[in-house]
Specification:
It is a single chain. This protein is of the alpha/beta class. It contains 13 helices and 13 strands. The chain starts with a helix and ends with a strand.
């Protein structure tokens, strides 16, 4: 009887040890492994910027950071309001996210300011002039700070040459942008400097919000031979109003981003926004694996494309030269 009792006691002891061992196995002892949290701030929703974000999420998954599984990605849209962008960035910092992805110049400036001195890494993308925006001090060197990312200086020289090739008689160029967006001001200044050699007159129509876009476009009717919009988040968010004015008055409209060509602009030499997002994800993955953002040299966007909307050109009676169509990466018929 005593022997049977001791045997049962020994069995119970073994079970206790086994259960305890199960509770202590693996690197997550004491609780589940912490999943990193990445806050994403985007100044406004429109197709080009949404592609940046999608490219980021997809590449993060390829890097092993799957949203909802091995990383938590929190997306916030500032609805075109710089004050809201600041609030979003401040909240991410207050919540102590592990890193911030900032899409566009205004959102990146807000994130950089909010995260200053906190050690929270900020990776920027879709920023035309990172130096002019105050995000980095110089090109080609590590920042030594918590900020790095992908800058995408728009190829405005190639964009202006494309306009000249497609509309050879252009002498007056309408330029619509938000003078409150640093990236747009930078591009506008570069455009004005470049077309001086072409003897073009630049007629500007600036806006402060999306509700101003239609009136700005209407103000250029009869005064310009073509209209150009750089990668301006405010104008692109109200693109349909601009397209309608240009179609009705048969004004060739060109843009700085590829997604606007798909929506009705004539063409552009533009950044591949999806790949820009993927490029940002590669940097973010390095940081989440433990690399210091201050040692990662900010990168220039690596892929650009020539996109032509022949259907839009045909609608206003504009013939696209064969040479342009042949070298285009994509032609919308």
């Amino acid at each position: 009887m005593r022997t049977r009792f001791l045997a049962v006691l020994a069995l119970v002891a073994l079970l206790v040890v086994a259960v305890a061992g199960c509770g202590q196995s693996g690197p997550q002892s004491g609780g589940e492994k912490k999943v990193p949290v990445v806050g994403v701030t985007q100044i406004v929703r429109h197709p080009a910027l949404d592609l940046d974000y999608q490219g980021f999420v997809d590449q993060m998954a390829k890097e092993g950071f799957v949203d909802g599984e091995t990383v938590k990605i929190i997306f916030k849209d500032a609805q075109g309001d710089p004050n809201l962008a600041k609030t979003i960035a401040d909240q991410f910092v207050a919540d102590k996210v592990d890193a911030i992805l900032s899409i566009t110049t205004p959102s990146s400036q807000a994130a950089a300011q909010a995260a200053k001195g906190t050690g929270i890494p900020v990776v920027f993308i879709a920023v035309s002039d990172a130096v002019g925006a105050g995000l980095i001090k110089e090109i080609g060197k590590p920042t030594g700070t918590n900020i790095t990312g992908v800058y995408s200086a728009d190829p405005v020289e190639q964009q202006m040459d494309l306009i000249e090739e497609v509309v050879p008689n252009v002498k007056r160029l309408g330029l619509i942008y938000n003078a409150g967006e640093d990236n747009s001001v930078s591009n506008a200044n570069r455009i004005k400097a470049y077309v001086k050699n072409k003897n073009w007159q630049v007629i500007e129509a600036t806006v402060t919000g999306t509700s101003d876009v239609q009136a700005a476009a209407q103000s250029l009717v009869g005064r310009v031979d073509a209209v150009f919009v750089p990668q301006d988040n405010t104008v692109i968010a109200a693109l349909e109003a601009l397209l309608q004015v240009c179609r009705t008055n048969k004004i060739p409209f060109f843009c700085g981003d590829t997604e606007s060509v798909k929506r009705g602009a004539i063409g552009t030499v533009g950044n591949d926004e999806y790949d820009c997002g993927a490029q940002g994800a590669e940097i973010m993955a390095r940081i989440l694996r433990g690399e210091d953002p201050g040692t990662i040299v900010p990168q220039e966007i690596r892929k650009r494309v020539l996109l032509i909307n022949k259907k839009a050109a045909d609608a206003i009676g504009l013939e696209i030269p064969k040479s342009v169509l042949e070298r285009a990466d994509e032609v919308i018929e």
